[in-house]
Design a protein that fits this description.
The protein is of the alpha/beta class. 34% of the residues lie in helices and 19% in strands. It is built from 8 helices and 7 strands. It has helices at 2-14, 30-33, 49-61, 82-89, 110-123, 149-159, 174-179, 191-198; strands at 19-23, 42-47, 70-74, 97-101, 129-135, 183-189, 214-221. A 7-stranded mixed sheet has the order 3-2-1-4-5-7-6, sandwiched between helices. Strand 4, helix 5 (110-123) and strand 5 (129-135) form a beta-alpha-beta unit. The longest helix has 14 residues, at 110-123.
Length: 225
C-alpha cells in the first residue's frame, strides 16, 4: 500500500501538481521523505486535531521542521465539511489536485465516504485524481474465499475492538458505485494485481500475499466530453 501511494505522490510532485490533499493523513511522512522533490506543490494534511497534535509533537521531538509547503487542516470527517475546511486552509478548486485517501474509507460512515466522493466529483478541477484503498464486503459465507480475511477479522476483533469496519463495496460493483457518484476509474487493482506489481521480486518470485479483500483504485471526475 505504501509503495502504491508513494508512487502517486512522487508522480504528482514530478508533474508539478499545484496541490496534494492527504485525507486522514495520520503520521504520513511523504511531505518530509520526498521534500527534495517538491518545488512548488502545496500539501494539505487532514486529520482529527488530537492526531495532528501528536504528530507535530513527534516532529518537534525529532527536530524536524514543518515544511512551509505543508498545511495541517484539523477535521472530523464524519461531522465537518471537507470543502469548507479545505477552502479555509487555502485550498482552491480551480487547480489540479491529487487526493490521497489511504487506510481510511473502511473506518468511515457511508455518508462521510459519499460526502468526500461528491466533493471531488462536483468541485475538484477536472484533471484531479483521487486515490484510495477499500475493502470489499465480507460475510460469513464469503469470508473464507479471500486470503487472510478470517484471520484479519479475528485480529480486528481482539486487538482493535473499538475500530469497526463501517464501509465496504460489494465485489464487482466498484465501477457502478463510482459512476453513480460522478467518478470514473483511472486504475483499479485487486489483490492479485497488487501482489504482481508490488510483491514480486526482480526474479519473478512472489514474496508475500496481500489480505485478499483489499483493493486500490484511482479515480477522476467524469466529464461530458
Amino acid at each position: 500500500r505504501t509503495a502504491y501511494f508513494d508512487h502517486l505522490f512522487l508522480e504528482a510532485l514530478q508533474d508539478h501538481s499545484p496541490q496534494i490533499v492527504i485525507l486522514g493523513a495520520g503520521y504520513d511522512t511523504r511531505a518530509y521523505r520526498f521534500a527534495d522533490s517538491n518545488h512548488s506543490t502545496r500539501i494539505f494534511e487532514l486529520d482529527v486535531p488530537s492526531t495532528q497534535a501528536r504528530k507535530l509533537e513527534c516532529l518537534r521531538k525529532g527536530h524536524i521542521a514543518v515544511s512551509k509547503q505543508v498545511t495541517y487542516v484539523p477535521i472530523d470527517f464524519n461531522r465537518e465539511s471537507l470543502g469548507d475546511e479545505l477552502v479555509k486552509a487555502g485550498y482552491t478548486n480551480d487547480q489540479k489536485t491529487l487526493f490521497i485517501w489511504e487506510g481510511v474509507t473502511y473506518y468511515l460512515e457511508h455518508k462521510a465516504v459519499d460526502a468526500t466522493l461528491k466533493f471531488v466529483s462536483h468541485t475538484a478541477h477536472p484533471e484531479s485524481t483521487l486515490a484510495f484503498d477499500y475493502t470489499i464486503s465480507l460475510t460469513d459465507e464469503n469470508r473464507h474465499a479471500y486470503y487472510g480475511a478470517t484471520e484479519f477479522a479475528e485480529t480486528m476483533r481482539v486487538r482493535h475492538g473499538g475500530e469497526a469496519l463501517l464501509f465496504s463495496i460489494a465485489e464487482g460493483q466498484i465501477e457502478t458505485f463510482l459512476a453513480q457518484r460522478g467518478l470514473a476509474i483511472v486504475t483499479h487493482l485487486d489483490n492479485t494485481e497488487i501482489e504482481t506489481k508490488f510483491l514480486t521480486s526482480e526474479g519473478g518470485t512472489l514474496i508475500g500475499h496481500l489480505t485478499g479483500h483489499f483493493r486500490f483504485v484511482t479515480v477522476s471526475p467524469q466529464t461530458n466530453e
